[in-house]
Design a protein that fits this description.
This protein has a single domain, classed as Rossmann fold, CATH 3.40.50. The protein is built from 6 helices and 5 strands.
């Protein structure tokens, strides 16, 4: 068995690298959004032309990024959504809801400080983890049936 995992959420820490490295011996392929913040913000105007109004600037970028996000989530066996400590990640909440609506296996990753704020998101998840290591252990268990040890 192999898994296709989409890694969504905050881009300011190395949580993705930790999961990818931890799962390197498992049959898992990873996809995710563009994590270059400037490229993600400016892709719409860089490709489709400048916008004088910031709303339309962001609108163009959001739509282009949605092409990648939708494809990644739709093709994923598991969607991992990370909520970081520093910023409100509305896009992460949207991705979690989209994955849940599609019936995807959803793993939510956040610290205890977000338990209350994310209670509805957590309720839609099949697992709520606090550390990237726990996500790796979930993937290992799903693929091999082995417990951490």
């Amino acid at each position: 068995m192999s898994l296709n995992v989409y890694l969504s959420g905050e881009i300011h820490t190395d949580w993705r690298d930790q999961i990818i490295e931890g799962a390197s011996k498992l049959q898992v392929s990873f996809t995710g959004p563009v994590t270059d913040h400037d490229a993600s913000d400016d892709c719409g105007v860089a490709i489709l032309g400048e916008e004088p109004n910031k709303f339309w600037h962001d609108h163009k970028g959001a739509k282009l990024n949605a092409i990648r996000t939708r494809k990644g989530i739709e093709e994923a066996d598991i969607v991992v959504v990370r909520f970081g400590e520093k910023y409100k990640q509305w896009n992460a909440a949207f991705d979690a809801g989209y994955a849940a609506a599609l019936g995807k296996s959803l793993i939510v990753l956040h610290g205890p400080e977000h338990q209350h704020a994310l209670k509805e998101v957590d309720a839609a998840a099949l697992a709520v983890a606090e550390e990237p290591r726990q996500v790796v252990e979930i993937l290992r268990y799903v693929l091999t049936g082995e417990l951490p040890g």
